[in-house]
Amino acid sequence: MLPYILALVLLLVGVFGIFTRKNLIKIIISISIIESAVNLFLILVGYRSGGIAPIFTARMAEISEFADQAVDPLPQAMVLTSIVIGVSLTALLVVISLRLHHVYGTYDINKIFFARESDEE
Amino acid sequence: MNFLLPLVVALPLGGGFLLALLPGRFLKFSSFFFVLVAISILLSSILLLPGTGYYEIGGWIFPLGINFSLDGLSRLLLLMIALVGFAVSVYSASYMDLYTSRIRFYALFLLLWAGLNGTVLSGDIFNRYVYVEIAVIASYILVGFGCAPHELKAALKYAVLGAVASAFTLLGIAVVYSITGTVNIAQLAARFSNFTEPVFIGSPAFFAGFLLVLGFGYKSAQAPLHVWQPDAFSAAPASVSAMMSSALVVIVGIYAMSRTVFTAFGVVALLCWLMVFLGLCSVFLGLYYSAKTDRPRRVLSYQSISQVGYVLLAVGLGGIVYSSGESLNLSIWLLVGGLFHLLNHAFFMSSLFLALGSAEFNTVDVDCCDAGQGIFVDLPLVGCVSAIASASAAGIPPFAGFISKFIIIAATWAAGFPFIALLLVFSTLGALPVFYRYISRALQGQSPVSRRPVTLLMKGSLIFLVVLVVSASFLILPPLRSAYLDSAAVSLLEERPYEEKINEWEKIIKDAGDSDRKTGGIEQ
Question: Which of A48, B110, B211, B302 has its CA 20 to 30 A from that of B217?
Answer without folding.
Answer: B110
